[in-house]
Amino acid sequence: MNANHREDRVWLWMFLGAMALLGATRWHFSHQSGGFTPVASRKAAPEVVLPQLGGGQWRLADHRGQVVLVNYWATWCGPCQEELPGLMQVAREAGPKGLAVVGVSLDSGPDTRATVQQFVAANRVPYPVAFPDATWSGHAGVSIPTTVLLDRQGRVVKTYVGAVDHDDFAKDVAALLAES
Fold first, then answer.
1. Which residue among 97, 137, 150, 154 is least packed, with the fewest CB closer than 10 Å?
2. pLDDT tens by residue, 21-59
3. Residue 107's closest CA among 69, 150, 159, 145?
């Protein structure tokens, strides 16, 4: 095999690798907006009370009348970090219009609270961050990131698995905020 043929094969493999990476990226960030559960089929989310970072408790019942995004994440999760800027932007934009966002950290370990606090402070997360308590199994088996969208009555409208971009969150939140 001559040198030019080897060089052509290297470029071919690099091109194929780049196309595979591009395809994976498009799949990872594929549009996830729409696809709501019909109103008549929506199931009520369980009553959730979670210990918050910094003290106090986050209660789903306190957010009746608001659209709610519950985002399961962890500080070490790359896709969680990728979607964070868009999620924070939606929280800032739609919060005054009736959106509540809570991040549920699934981090674990001896210094979990300190690690999460540092991450939240460094990224200026504008919404409450909570932790699952020992009795709540709603997070068991959840792949992260996973985000659950609830309507104003606390019913599950949609579950996103994987990183979601700002536009998809924004479209879905706007549609739910417009529901009467």
1. 137
2. 434 443 444 456 568 888 888 899 988 899 999 999 999
3. 145
